[in-house]
Amino acid sequence: MGKAKFRYNPETLSYEKVERSALEKLLRGLIFIAPTFTLSIVFGFFLANRLDSPKEKRLKAELGEMHLIVEEFSKRLSNIDLAVEQIKQRDEELYRSAFGAKAFPEELRKMGIGGSDRYKELRKKSNADLLIATAKKLDEIEGKLYAQSISFTDLVNLAKEREVYLANLPAIQPVRNKDLKRIASGFGWRIDPVYGTKQMHWGLDFTADVGTEIYATGGGVVELVKKIALGYGKEVVINHCFVLKTRYSHLHEFKVKEWD
Fold first, then answer.
1. How many other CB atoms are there within 10 angstroms of residue 206's CB atom?
2. Using the 8-state DSSP alphabet, how is residue 49 labeled?
3. CA 24 to CA 194: how far, in whole Å?
4. CA-to-CA separations, 133 to 67, 116, 139, 170, in angstroms, rounded
């Protein structure tokens, strides 16, 4: 209990006890507890910022785990990027070389993914730098894979054309060996058997018995079936595509018609 205070009264020439009002008592109480209250607030603020709650600790642990996971993904993307580069090298040095194809346009390989600020939302995240770097690497690999798919589509089309070309390429003789008597005349300059002068012979003469089957030397379409009195006599012309044609002349009879 606080000490009582007295005030001197000159009228009564005596000391009178000072009685405090309720408001004064309240103010004195507030003044007394204010430092303690202030220190409590400061200490509480300090603890709130320095010491994590269980939930905050859990979130920080999860954030650390996510950081490690993203780093691992980034490393795996680097390995994928290396594999894509190796595929690109094989494409240029092996596949396209084998088909005699032109190099795939480098500007198509480097084409990017559109968007003025594709990573705007990522900039708001924690670990933004790592997330953006990983996203950029992923976009780059995606662009390379898309370009490579286009390149492979070109190669598939070239392979199909080459398959047709090889199937149609004249590569066998028109008479079976068991039916062949001899090759009467080869390709090149010779003495013409009719005129007795030196002339260019633009073909090969195969001799065989009348009625021997004549085979097309490669796949194609019968473009011409013709009979003339002189020169080639009865002849068939086959279009093998790719600007290749073969002529079969001096035939005994026809068993084909045009566009067979």
1. 19
2. H
3. 148
4. 13, 16, 10, 57
| Confidence (pTM) | 0.54
140 class by beta-carbon count within 10 Å (0-12 exposed, 13-18 middle, 19+ buried)? middle
Report the candidate in 228, 234, 236, 242 with the shortest Cα–Cα distance to residue 260.
236
- pLDDT tens per residue across span 189-207: 888 777 788 888 888 899 9
Picking from 143, 134, 136, the residue whose alpha carbon sits closest to that of residue 73 is 134
* Backbone Cα Rg of the chain: 50
Evaluated on CA atoms 187, 191, 192, 193, the torsion sign reads: negative
Furthest-apart CA pair in the chain: how many Å? Answer: 173
Residue type, 173: Q
- 237 vs 249: CA distance, rounded Å: 9
Query: Which helix (H) or strand (E) covers residue 16, if one does?
Result: strand 14-17
Q: What are phi and psi of 50, to 5 degrees?
A: -95, -30
* DSSP characters over 101-134: PPPPPHHHHT-----TTTTTGGGGSTTHHHHHHH
